[in-house]
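Lab notes, practical 5.
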Amino acid sequence: MTEETLIKYITGQADAVEAGQVGTWASASEERQKELGRIRNVWILSGLGNEVDQLIKEPEIRRILDKIRIIGKKDPPKTRRLKLLKYAAVLFFVVSISGFLGYLISRSAIPASEYAGIIVPKGERSKVVLPDGSTVQLNGGSQLRFSPGYRSGKRVVFLEGEAFFEVAHDRFHPFVVEAGNLQIEVLGTKFNVSSYPDDETITTYLEEGKVKVCMEGQGDTYLKPSEVLKFNKPDGTAEKQTVNDHRFSDWTKGILNIKGETIEELARKLERRFDVRISFGDAEVRKHTYSGLIRDEELGTVLEALQFTSSLKYERHGKIVTICSVK
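Output from the prediction step:
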């Protein structure tokens, strides 16, 4: 497979044969699959705007081409850049921010009638800058869809997973998050929403400002700063409470803030954070609950901390982790 084929694939101009070649190349390793997914996500979301400084543009093009690591004959750097610009319907660049990937999105990148989306795989986190200037930090295993245009005078995004929003104020265009059974509406604020399909609850935590949460069959509920609303999906009930810490948004800082969570609840978070599968060796271990702060920068460190503070042990084989009680 050539570099030109990959560029055509990323920009949506590859035919069936070329797409097959890219698929074969990507299937050679999991790292290639993830890298291809990350590049396509950013490509979809970003625009080839004249406002992008050439001093930023060219180094980023070189960085992406170096990252691809195509096996085979290489064109000179200048020729590669010309090829990329020739096939590019849009331009992307990636900026590292505190361990996150920052995406810059142009208003002109996608027709207003369409929705674009990004998928953040397990084991990763991403930071997205929306066309209106709002920023969204996405946790592992999450998806976000949105349109650059306004629908019925509102800025609407669709979330599956967990995200922390910092919404740009716009009194004429409310910002709406569609998350499962909930609809969260704001004008400008900071809040966290967790709405994973395999979780029984959808949580909305307000850090700053004011939000209105619309629940199916229950009307509207307003949240003030430091309040969290937990919506139980199986029975449709909801509970609002005040918290005196940032446990629901600390994940954006690389911290697991655990408050009386069961091992099963914690395991789901670890699976998404580190892209592993966790099983339990016995029924006794499921009764464990935890509280505390843990840096989540490395899975081994987290597991060692849990083992040190409780009567359990773990075995790890690649991406499979088994947790058992100490007999």
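Observations recorded by the TA: The helical segments are 3-10, 16-26, 30-45, 54-68, 77-87, 263-274, 299-309. The longest helix spans residues 30-45.
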